Amino acid sequence: MGKSILDFLNTVDSVLYYPILIIIMAIAGIYFTFRTKFVQLRLFGESCKLLLEPSEDKTGKTVSSFQALMISTASRVGTGNIVGVSTAICLGGPGAVFWMWVMCIITASSAFMESTLAQIFKKKTDDGSYFGGPAYYIERALKAPWLSVIFCIFLILTYGIGFNLLCAYNLQSSFETYGFYKNHMVNFFGSQISLVAIIVGILLTVLVAYFMLGGGKKVVRLTEIVVPFMGIAYVIISLIVIFVNIKNIPSMFVTIFKDAFDFEAIMGGVAGSCLVYGIKRGLYSNEAGVGSAPNASASANVSHPVKQGLVQTLSVYIDTILLCTATALMCLSTGAERSDAVAGAQYVQNSISTVFGSFGPIFITTAMVLFAFTTLLGNLFYVDNALAYINHKKMPSKKTLDIFHVICAVIIFFGTVIPMDAAWALADITMGGMTIINLPACALLGGIAIKALKNYEEKKKAGLPLTFKGSEIGIPEDELDLWK
């Protein structure tokens, strides 16, 4: 029975990504890139400047542009940067790294579009904070609230269940390299599970429940501190490993590009090729176009919606170009053996141990703990916005949210005791469902985001205040809660 379910999930996963999602993502990314005149590259410098802008609100009730970026980055930057990249290389080949880069640059334009639209159609709560996301602009684009509800259900399944199960699995898998992991096996509902995995699951469940019951502002403060620290530390360690193996860099890049353009091998088994694995794991890692980051973007208090759209493109680059690349180059430069058996945290741990010895695996486990914890909290932040839409566009009561957060925390436990294939397939399928709904809606509303971008650039060129009103680009006031 279990094998039949797993086979079914893997089949759906394969068909969903090839050919459906590959085509949708590529077309949408290229379309947005040309419509915005390569905004993700052309205004990269402007994006960096906006990141340092002080908060527009001094009361502390709203989220700044930087804080919103950190929330979305907390979800993007996670175990996928380590385990996702490792899995793609071990199962798909080194060429997967190249396709991650390509999709990152292309889909960064999708990140701009979805986050700008989320800002334009955001809502304001009674306490003065903001919320919103794809559900609101999907309703506006297609005049179909029922589709927004389906999107919200997919989002809840993805971030409340799929991603959290996978995140928990990835974390516990980083302990497999230690002898005590396999030395303490117990019977768990008919399966042999490491006691370590069970303990990790219990601790994660308790900690996530504790922080989520403390309120959303704690999530903001925690991610604002932890995300930059863990990202910088990880990159520094990766650079040290790469530098030690610098003589291998030229041959490593030859391997990446040779494998990426081995179309005979790709066509011989597309679903398991470096092309598909690069796209799947790249999408899982940076989430551009999935419709998740706009939930954080909508919460930011900025003077012009385009500001947050530009800032969110940076999150995609931080995730893929910086952190995913750090993992890939670190692993490939060491020449550590890659195979199905070590796919995941173990391949990264084996690679880093060639330079740092026994400290290497410990560092990766520590990074995984920090990555996983902030990812889990960031995921549940997104879920709250989906619940708000389903609840007649109003945030549910604190009691309702607390109950839901406790349920999500309990679900996290099961991620530490399920098979790897099941964890990845569930996350891929639910995330794919979100993307299939979100990107076409962004395309239909593309004209609004383009007009907003033009409005921003014209005002900046003329030296005018960078403020915004919906009427300036032809949006009727009765269609907006803000920007009037």
SSE map:
Elements: H1 2-35, H2 39-42, H3 44-51, H4 65-76, H5 83-92, H6 96-120, E1 123-124, E2 130-131, H7 134-142, H8 145-173, H9 179-182, E3 185-188, E4 191-194, H10 195-212, H11 216-244, H12 249-260, H13 263-268, H14 274-286, H15 293-297, H16 305-334, H17 345-356, H18 359-390, H19 398-415, H20 420-444, H21 446-462
Antiparallel strand pairs: 1-2, 3-4
Helix pairs in contact: 1-6, 1-20, 3-16, 4-11, 4-16, 4-18, 5-14, 6-12, 6-14, 6-16, 7-8, 7-20, 8-10, 8-18, 8-19, 8-20, 10-18, 10-19, 11-16, 11-18, 16-17, 17-18
What's a quick, concise take on this entry?
With 484 residues, the protein is mostly helical. Helices cover 73% and strands 2% of the residues. The radius of gyration is 22 Å and the shape is globular.
General description of the model:
A hairpin with a 2-residue loop joins strand 3 and strand 4. The strands form 2 sheets. A two-stranded antiparallel ribbon has the order 1-2. Strands 3-4 form a two-stranded antiparallel sheet. Helix 1 crosses helix 6 and helix 4 packs parallel to helix 16. It is mainly α and 484 residues long. It is built from 21 helices and 4 strands. The model has no long low-confidence stretch (mean pLDDT 84).
